[in-house]
UniProtKB/TrEMBL annotation:
Name assigned to this protein: Putative amino acid permease YhdG
Membrane topology, from the record: Multi-pass membrane protein
Localisation: Membrane
Amino acid permease/ SLC12A domain sequence ranges: 17-429
PANTHER family linked: AMINO ACID TRANSPORTER-RELATED, INNER MEMBRANE TRANSPORT PROTEIN YBAT
Organism: Rubripirellula lacrimiformis
Name of the gene encoding the protein in the UniProt record: yhdG
Amino acid sequence: MTDTQQRHLGLFGATGIGVGAIVGGGILALAGVAFATTGPAAIVAFAINGVIAMLTALSFAEMASKFPESGGTYTFSRKVLSVESAFTVGWVVWFASIVAAVLYALGFAHFGLIFCQELSSANGYQWDWLHRPILVPVTAIATSVLLAVGLMMRTGGGGTFANVAKVAVFVVLIVGGVWAVCQQSAGDTVASFRPFFADGMGGLVQAMGYSFIALQGFDLIAAVGGEIKQPARTIPRAMMLSLVIALLIYLPLLSVIVAVGTPSGESITEAAAADPGSIVANAARNYLGVTGFWLVIVAAVLSMFTALQANLFAASRIAQAMAGDRTLPRMMSRVSAGNGNPTVSVIVTTTLVCLLVVALPDLSAAGAASSLIFLVTFAIAHWLSVLVRQRSPANPPPFMSPWYPVVPVVGGLACVSLAVFQGIAVPTAGLIAVVWLSLGGVLFLTLFARSARLRDVSSMAANPELSRLRGNTPLVLVPIANPQNAEAMIALAETLVPAALGRVLLHTVVVAPPDWAPDLDPGPADRSHVVQRALISASLRLGVHAETLVTVAASPFEEIARVARLHRCGSVLLGLSEIAEDGPPAPMEALLSRLETDVVVLRAPNDWHLAERQKILVPVAGHGGHDYLLTRLLGSLTRNQNCDVKFVRVIPVASGLGELRRVEKELDRLAYDNFGGRCEREVVESDDPVDAVVSRADASGLVILGVQRIGPRQKLFGRFTRQIASRTHCPIIVISRRG
């Protein structure tokens, strides 16, 4: 699927997702709570929350323009934080979106049944549908399933018709309210706003904490960023536009509710305290009669429907992004061949929504937990935007929020403060979040950790900027004693750690006795000068910005281990002229056991260099002891070179068909985990594994093998590696994972 096919949402569609999620449900559910807490000052509470939401939207838009992929806060975290932290963020955001979808599904069912009940009553039928408890969850589940089918069959998620109809209904409510205000005296209007702060500034802050989530939904635009055209331009506009539309509806509606929404002599604070859930409907009935009541019911039905659709759409994309990174089952990343929709992810997400509809004992606490999680992730988005600016000054986001760092600092502190309030106001919300996090931690460690970490290593190797975004500046140490292989070693080091990412330290050891007198014995220094000139010449030819280090020691291998430890090297690249088939352990093997870093050993002819088109053979035995280093090495080698990778597994001839099929599946999984499946796989039946590998090595440009671990901190090349090296002239890389 091409990027053009994937990106099908324009400004109107992206804004529709935000409007669908924000407008309606929040104001209908939370206006009464805000009025009961602070009186007419609820208008100010919503306005201040609107400012905080816009600040948060600016940071979200900046991150989404930098990483225009689906997943929202999870994707931002995966780029900047560790894979474990990213999973934590994605896991809770997915849960929060699912719980939000549950609440909107039940809200749709509740208001839908009210609509049907009132409609039947108007036609002479007295059906009390709301007192049949089973109808609400059944309606919620049926609606969720139907929406899921729609999401799998078409592209989109903004609910265009329902959005337009919903906004139109709210406009009618506002216009009708303004007309009613114009019909009453100015004195009555002013009196309805007194006292403005019913419970002082404390009440205002409480109202902000209760009602901020009414503006949640703009973040869902970032969650589907991979499907938006021209994301760097469209996402910021869609986020701000959806918030502006919401505030242009919320603030006038709240104002007319205060002015003409209660009978004469009754304050909005008293009316909201008596029945907070019905304050909007009762207000509309007061100034528009029965028509106003029906308009609110219609607005509620449409609002819950579009919010449910938007949350299902976004939650499925979050799960798809996580599955693509192996932090959820891989099958959830699969997309339909016809329209590119993540069918499995939609099914799993909707199934969880349906289960929670009937399983959650305390929906209000679950909703509060969802609000708490969203607020925490909003604060994380602010923090990540600061980290990206600091760590990637040479490659800033296409869209950069103004007034930096005021926007992320003020917005982040506001979100943290509201999250703390939510945690104190509803302690059960924090408990629910902790339980869900604990479940996710167990699943990650038992099912996803290895594949997710391998995928993460592969991503960083393929895109070195990710390491810089995470604040890493890796150092590779390259000890070189033979000037003839300097170019090959430096080129491989630059491939492992590009100059823009980290540092390459070329190390020359002047081998001399402890009592060496350079004036009397200039030989060691002269040999070092020859090597140094070769290193400088090779670096200039290759355009590699390498550093050089010269040290003096009697034992070069002990000195290499000392320098690697002193400089805290991330990896060490060693060159070796030959690996003997028999004989005692080589000094190089003793060095492997002493080094606490990843080690790559290159055995290649003096004139060997990384070719533009390279065939790489990777024999595997199924143990996976060096998977992380192998994944990093393959990702680095194939980042710039057009390499063909082939994984080979040798099994005995008499293994049988069942064993052959099992090994084929194991090899497929290994190749997919290590290299994303973009390679050849071959299972060879042979009783001589060395001969099977050698026959294929001769047709390859490079063979990658692993060292043998025979005990704690004891590593050898191993008999298999020694035999392969002695029977082929093909360049060989032997890898040794740290520890």
